[in-house]
Amino acid sequence: MFSPSRSLLSRAALLLLLAGAALGAQAADLSPADADAQAVAARGTPARVGGLWCGIGLLGEFSLEIAQRYHDFEAKLVRKGRVREITGHIEGAKLRTDPQRNETLELEALGDRLRITGGTGPLALARGQSFARATGNSCAP
Fold first, then answer.
1. Going residue by residue through the chain (141 aa), what tens digit of pLDDT does each one get?
2. Is 96 exposed, middle or buried (0-12, 13-18, 19+ CB in 10 A)?
3. Domain segments of the chain as ranges
4. Residues 6 or more apart from 92 whose CB is under 8 A from it?
5. What is the 3-state secondary structure (H, E, C) of the chain?
6. pLDDT for 122
7. 124 within 8 A of 118, measured Cβ to Cβ
8. pLDDT for res 32
9. If you placed Cys at 75, which of 13, 66, 105, 119 could pair as Cys (CB 3.0 to 4.6 Å)?
């Protein structure tokens, strides 16, 4: 017996298969560089956070030097001469560090401020505290 709902489901399934095949063929035609560019575009434009950042308030003894490569970054978190190197990714205004020693850090770029919004480990306890973009080459008061 013919069922209208079964017919609609069959048509929908066929359309999905055809759309998937078309997308697969289109992706196969992309060069690796084009595929990378499409992946980057899909993640959005990252905030520009490269440079020196100085801790404010409870983070006053900290500095954060960020080297940014579009969506990826490497940074040095410095406190009293001790350096901790971190890496991570940027999606829009959100920075997320890669897990290191089972600790992560999440920051949000807000103009000339980087605010800690979450993470795990000791620095995550500083949620709400910020770094300010340095006006010179150091964080000296």
1. 545 444 433 443 333 333 343 334 344 455 554 554 444 445 579 999 999 999 999 999 999 999 999 999 999 999 999 999 999 999 999 999 999 888 999 999 999 999 999 999 887 889 999 999 999 899 976
2. middle
3. 4-42, 51-133
4. 44, 45, 46, 47
5. CCCHHHHHHHHHHHHHHHHHHHHHHHHHCCCHHHHHHHHHHHCCCCCCCCEEEEECHHHCCEEEEEEEECCEEEEEEEECCEEEEEEEEEECCEEEECCECCEEEEEEEECCEEEEEEEECHHHHHCCCEEEECCCCCCCC
6. 84
7. yes
8. 57
9. 66
Which tokens belong to 2?
């013919």
Tokens of 16: 């999905």
